[in-house]
């Protein structure tokens, strides 16, 4: 029996959907392989061929799915921050929306501190790889600077949101508030307490919220 036009279109949509799902699955496998190997061996010692072998795909598939190693590292940064398979702009992230909707500084800081602690678990091995790669790779060095600058800009927006509650200390400017939060939500600060002193992510998140309340509220 010949297919009617509607059947042809449905078949094409189905085929397209299957291919898209397969491509997304391959990309996830490549990113997970890169994440694991960067954590195990370091950035420099991890080759694209090793990533391909771990992911169970061809080398050309790695390049097609995510690109060269600097591009892979960028994808890992973005997906680790968002907690999804793709980059999510800061203003569209769930914890950012909830923090903005919260009525008090304490609640805003608690929401954000909890998110920082959760993101830190995903980001820790990626940050280590990025710090290593930035020493010798110009693209990775630029990425590290970009991430730091973007985080600082987002903290200035956060400081302005906190200021709108009328609860912040009057002797601190918004830039100072932003810099305080920016420094304490950094990978380097987390590494001291969680990585070296053995704090849990939950304890770290609670500490950040309490410390920020004590430092920033009037």
TrEMBL record:
Residue ranges of domain HTH tetR-type in the record: 24-84
Keyword Transcription listed: yes
Segments passing through the bilayer: none
UniProt keyword annotations, A-Z: DNA-binding, Transcription, Transcription regulation
InterPro entries: Homeodomain-like_sf, HTH-type_TetR-like_transc_reg, HTH_TetR, Tet_transcr_reg_TetR-rel_C_sf
Keyword Transmembrane helix attributed: no
Pfam families, A to Z: TetR_N (PF00440)
Residues annotated to bind DNA: 47-66
GO molecular function terms attached to this record: DNA-binding transcription factor activity; transcription cis-regulatory region binding
Name the UniProt record assigns to this protein: Transcriptional regulator, TetR family
Organism: Blastococcus haudaquaticus
Lineage: Bacteria, Bacillati, Actinomycetota, Actinomycetes, Geodermatophilales
């Amino acid at each position: 029996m010949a297919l009617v036009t509607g059947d042809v279109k449905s078949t094409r949509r189905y085929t397209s959907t299957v291919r898209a799902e397969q491509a997304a699955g391959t990309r996830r496998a490549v990113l997970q392989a890169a994440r694991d190997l960067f954590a195990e061996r370091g950035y420099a010692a991890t080759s694209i061929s090793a990533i391909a072998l771990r992911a169970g795909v061809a080398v050309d598939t790695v390049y097609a799915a995510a690109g060269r190693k600097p591009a892979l590292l960028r994808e890992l940064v973005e997906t680790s921050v968002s907690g999804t398979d793709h980059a999510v702009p800061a203003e569209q992230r769930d914890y950012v929306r909830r923090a903005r909707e919260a009525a008090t500084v304490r609640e805003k800081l608690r929401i954000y501190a909890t998110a920082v602690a959760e993101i830190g678990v995903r980001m820790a091995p990626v940050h280590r790889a990025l710090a290593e790669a930035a020493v010798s790779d110009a693209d990775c060095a630029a990425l590290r600077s970009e991430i730091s600058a973007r985080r600082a800009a987002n903290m200035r927006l956060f400081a302005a949101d906190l200021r709108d509650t009328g609860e912040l200390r009057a002797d601190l400017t918004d830039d100072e508030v932003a810099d305080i939060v920016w420094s304490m939500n950094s990978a380097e600060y987390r590494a001291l307490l969680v990585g070296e002193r053995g704090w849990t992510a939950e304890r770290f998140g609670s500490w950040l919220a309490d410390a920020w309340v004590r430092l920033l509220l009037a």
